[in-house]
Amino acid sequence: MKTYRTWIQLAVSLMAFVAADFVGLPARADDYLTPIQLPNAIPLKTIATVHRIRDAGKGWKVFGCYPEFTLVTPLTTVAQNRLRRDCLKDLASSTSDLKASVAAGVDGALEYQQAPQVTLYEPNHLISTADLEYEYQGGAHGDFGVSCITFGQVGAVARVLTVGDFFLSGKDYHTFLNGALMAKLKAMAGADWAQDGTMTSVTNDQLNNFSVYPDGLVWHFDPYAAGSFASGEINVKMTWAELGPGLNKAVLP
To answer: What's the confidence (pLDDT) of residue 3?
Structure first.
């Protein structure tokens, strides 16, 4: 991602994308070219208006979108504001990067695509989202990944939740999850690096890259995290029963 020298530079870039926001424009066939789709995701159009943003130039193009939830609650407001901000920021940064690559003589149809998905939608309690991203800046193949954010209503405060929020205070969830996830990865096809010792533990960022489903949590490991690019996205699920008695039931769906 591009680092902006001043907040003014970032603001100008974001304003350009706000101006290009074609709300209500019918989806094109290439709107969702990301090679990842989350299982059992909730169709956005059933719970939100989807705002699409596109821009393109010679040798490059970008596409992104963010939801405006139909039901207005403190939690949906916090979630859609964060998703909108992240979408605009990522598009501005990626556009700058792609233009720089074209100027440097990189050949090919350079592109960046971003699309959110929702795996759990309880507008007064819990909303779990995943940002699917694909970028091609030349070379043999593009890169793709999943970045997750879960939002929860905790008392009077609507905020982003970490994996630690799903466990009771005092539970050593980090050690527990690290062991459980590594054990599952070692038994999964494609998780070669977990099996040959290259990957020895799960990082804190990886622990917090999870989606919430009605029956448990799913952790997403991007290509090169637990295996080669050919292995693709590796998803590891743990049901509420597997996650054990240390769960914070007040947070669960």
So the answer is: 31
Q: What is the CATH number of domain 163-243?
A: 3.90.640.20
Residue 166 is predicted with a pLDDT of: 97
State the pairing for strand pair 143-154/48-57.
unpaired
**Distance, CA of 140 to CA of 142 (rounded, Å):** 7
**Does position 36 have pLDDT exceeding 80, yes or no?**
no
Residue ranges, comma separated, of all CATH 3.30.565.40 domains in the chain are 7-161
CA 253 – CA 125 distance, rounded (Å): 8
pLDDT of residue 229: 79
Q: Report CA-CA distances (Å) from 151 to 86, 118, 211.
A: 14, 11, 11
Tell the CATH superfamily of the 7-161 domain: Fervidobacterium nodosum Rt17-B1 like (3.30.565.40)
HSE-up of 147 (CA within 13 Å, CB side)?
Answer: 10
Cα–Cα distance list, 97 to 1, 38, 86, 107, 161 (Å): 7, 27, 16, 14, 30
Provide the mean pLDDT of the chain: 84
- The rounded distance, in Å, linking the Cα atoms of 94 and 76 is 27
Which residues of the chain are in CATH 3.90.640.20 domains? 163-243
